[in-house]
Specification:
It holds the Pfam family OmpA. About 25% of the residues lie in helices and about 30% in strands. It is of the alpha+beta class and about 325 residues long. The strands form 4 sheets. It has a 5-stranded antiparallel β-sheet with strand order 3-5-11-8-9, with no helix packed on it. A hairpin with a 5-residue loop joins strand 1 and strand 2. Helix 1 packs antiparallel against helix 2.
Length: about 325
């Protein structure tokens, strides 16, 4: 809708006399930039949301805090009504409204399992609860919660039930750990009614870091850590973005696919992260931001490595801040 508004506005501007046309175009571009910056700032400002149990939860990175993708859904037995079997209902901000039924939430079914992924942020550990699950109804139905860095190896962090829907991941998180995946498993005890199992409206990272991802193919040639010319343009844009957001520190993480040995992938991913940092600090002279680097190798995939597309997605560099 906004795009169409700008197109119509520009069409009207082009009919103006030349001097007025240039001034109007300049003003339109400035206003569009301000609108975009304002929208982004609003999107990443902390938000406070009240759940069905009356708890108010603050999410540090705003709307970006919530799960973005369903990676797997295994409905329990018995399953729920068809209207509540769509896993995507658990994505994004909570949108359940009392009196509307549970059509805006996914019902897991008796013993059902739902796996979700964060893409523009990662779950991190800080003092207090780190993750919140929005369930529909006055009571939280017993559900087991696990987290993962790669979607393969899972760490159980406890359960939610009664009036408690937040979990602390400190028992499974070491310093610097980030988690991209969350698994919810219904306990399989209450299997009666039309909607057996937990009814999940949204899953949000209370404590999170934002992520900017760059495709490896844009930055580097195959088996190389030397930056391509195209990469330098994109890195300049990233530097400007970080400075505009007044970021004080960021971690640059290199990733590879699973082809080759673990030792080779670990080394290559670290060298690539170091190349990015060197360009930012020495060539662009980015000041005021402390960059650390890490090579993750193939240990933190965002997609399966058994397809060419999955491997392409896994070859990347991330800025985490």
């Amino acid at each position: 809708m906004r795009r169409n508004v700008y197109i119509n506005r520009i069409g009207s501007i082009m009919a103006l006399p030349y001097p007025m046309r240039m001034l109007a175009l300049a003003l339109t571009i400035v206003l569009a930039s301000l609108f975009s910056a304002s929208a982004h700032a609003q999107e990443t400002q902390p938000v406070r949301i009240e759940d069905e149990q009356g708890n108010t939860i603050t999410f540090e990175v705003g709307e970006k805090a919530f799960a973005d993708t369903v990676t797997s859904f295994d409905p329990g037995d018995p399953m729920s009504k068809q209207t509540a079997e769509d896993g995507t209902l658990a994505l994004g901000l909570p949108n359940y409204e009392r009196g509307r039924g549970i059509e805006t939430a996914i019902t897991l079914g008796c013993g059902g399992v739902l796996e979700l992924q964060f893409t523009d942020n990662v779950l991190i550990d800080r003092e207090g609860p780190d993750l919140h699950v929005f369930e529909v109804g006055p009571d939280v139905e017993p559900t087991f919660v696990s987290v993962s860095t790669d979607g393969n190896e899972w760490n159980e962090v406890g359960g939610i039930e009664g009036g408690t829907a937040s979990v602390d991941i400190s028992d499974v998180a070491d310093a610097g750990d980030v988690f991209r995946f969350v698994r919810l498993t219904d306990d399989g005890e209450d299997c009666s009614g039309n909607y057996p199992g937990a009814d999940i409206d949204a899953v949000g990272a209370i404590h999170a870091s934002q992520v900017i991802e760059l495709a490896g193919a844009l930055l580097f040639d195959l088996d190389s850590s030397a930056l391509r010319a195209e990469a330098k343009v994109r890195l300049r844009e990233i530097a400007e973005t970080l400075e505009k957001r007044e970021v004080e520190s960021a971690t640059i993480v290199g990733h590879t696919d699973s082809q080759g040995s673990a030792a080779y992938n670990d080394s290559l991913s670290l060298e690539r992260a170091q190349s990015v940092r060197t360009y930012l600090t020495e060539t662009l002279d980015v000041s005021g931001i402390e960059f650390t680097v890490r090579g993750a190798g193939a240990s933190e995939p965002v997609a399966p490595n058994d397809t060419a597309e999955g491997r392409r997605r896994n070859r990347r560099v991330e800025f985490i801040f």
